[in-house]
Amino acid sequence: MKLLPIFLSLALLSASGAFAQGAARVEVYKNAACSCCGGWVDHLRENGFAVSTHDIDDVPANREKLGMPEKLGSCHTATVNGYVIEGHVPASDIQRLLKEKPKALGLAVPSMPAGSPGMDSANPVNYDTLLVERDGSTSIFSKH
Question: Of 18, 121, 130, 131, which alpha carbon lies 20 to 30 A from 88's?
Fold first, then answer.
């Protein structure tokens, strides 16, 4: 059958096109002096995200510009596919967010909990990733 090679070629082209679109691009805004931000960036890259970092002088002002409430603040703010990501959010939570596509501002892990990605610790603590609504209200997205 001569059609089989054509179908296989089309399937391969389709698959390679999907692969060429690549991973979701995460834009990270951080202070140049912050070392834990680099650990979080490494964590995202290890989990398949394409990451660009931007060293900025005023992380809180950028957070405010993006709509993330200050009370949820951490040491860095990121954007991915129209969502705002605040703090040391695990890659698995971002992947779930992008899959489920809720109508929300994004995700936040306030502060810098020991044991969260980029915050390696011999004494990790339990923490929550919060789903942040556009009005600033939150709900628990996942527990760690």
Answer: 18
Residue with tokens 């202070």: 31
Q: Residue 89: count other Cβ atoms within 10 Å of its Cβ.
A: 28
Tokens found for residue 56: 């900025």
**Cα 107 from Cα 91, distance rounded (Å):** 11
Q: Domains in the chain, please, with CATH?
A: 24-143 (3.40.30.10)
Q: How far is CA 55 from CA 49, 76, 94, in A?
A: 19, 10, 22
Buried b (16+ CB within 10 A) or exposed e, 97-128: beeeeeebbbbbbbebbeebbbbeeeeeeebb
Each residue's pLDDT tens digit in the chain (144 positions)?
Answer: 454 444 444 444 444 333 334 678 999 999 888 888 888 999 999 999 999 999 999 999 999 999 999 999 999 999 999 999 999 999 999 999 999 999 999 999 999 999 999 899 999 999 999 999 999 999 999 999
